[in-house]
Structure formats: C-alpha cells, structure tokens
Amino acid sequence: MAEQGGNSNEENGNFGINLPKNSQRTVITATSDDNLKEIFHQIRTSKNPAVINYGASWCRVCSQILPAFCQLSNKFPKLSFVYADIDECPETTQHIRYTPTFHFYRDGERVDEMFGAGEERLHDRLWLHS
C-alpha cells in the first residue's frame, strides 16, 4: 500500500486508499456516488481536460499504479486527476468492468479509455490528452 501523507485519510477526504505524500492536493478522491456525480458535473461544465482512475482497494494492480498516477498528476498540471473506488461509488461505477480503468475527458466529454496498468502507457495517454 502507498505511503500515507501527514494527515489521516479521513481528514483529507480519502477514505478507502492511502495516497502518497504530495498528492492529496493534486488528486481528487470521489468518496461517494453523490460526490462522483458532482465531479462529473464539474468536468462537464468546466470543460477542462480530466482523467478518472477507477480502482478498488482490494485490486493489487490498482495499488501498484496509484503512486505513479499521483506522481503524474504533478507532471500534467493542466489535467484534473480523479480517483474513484468502485466499492465507494457503486451506483456511478456499475459500468466499470475492469480495474484499473482510466477515462479521459476533453471539453466535458469522454474521449478515451484505457484498461489495466502500465506506467509508460498511462504517461503516453496523459501526454496525448493534456
């Protein structure tokens, strides 16, 4: 599991995962279905590019890619980075069949999808959509 930052996860709004240090401010964590719906609304209305990482606390591959996802959030500041645990947002993530799944948004619309991990693949997709 990734190293936890200085404050507890609950204080940072990160309930199911431990985000690495220096990432709590750059990765938004969806904490419930309602919260994820709000995030979708913000993505649609702001039209800023975004990536959502759908994962699960029990998923080994998700845990392995999460630190890289958080580090990449600092490398691509124009993108909004979101982590959504499928067990914490069951209604809004019921369409997710594989973890991790990454959805990429531009101008409020989903434009790409990536299944599985792979830090280099993820970096290349983020570069493409930033």
From TrEMBL:
Protein name: Thioredoxin-like 3-3
Low complexity biased stretches: 1-18
Residue ranges of every copy of the Thioredoxin domain listed in the record: 40-123
Transmembrane segments: none
Record-linked Pfam families: Thioredoxin
CDD domains: TRX_family (cd02947)
Region called Disordered, residue ranges: 1-20
Domain of life from the UniProt record: Eukaryota
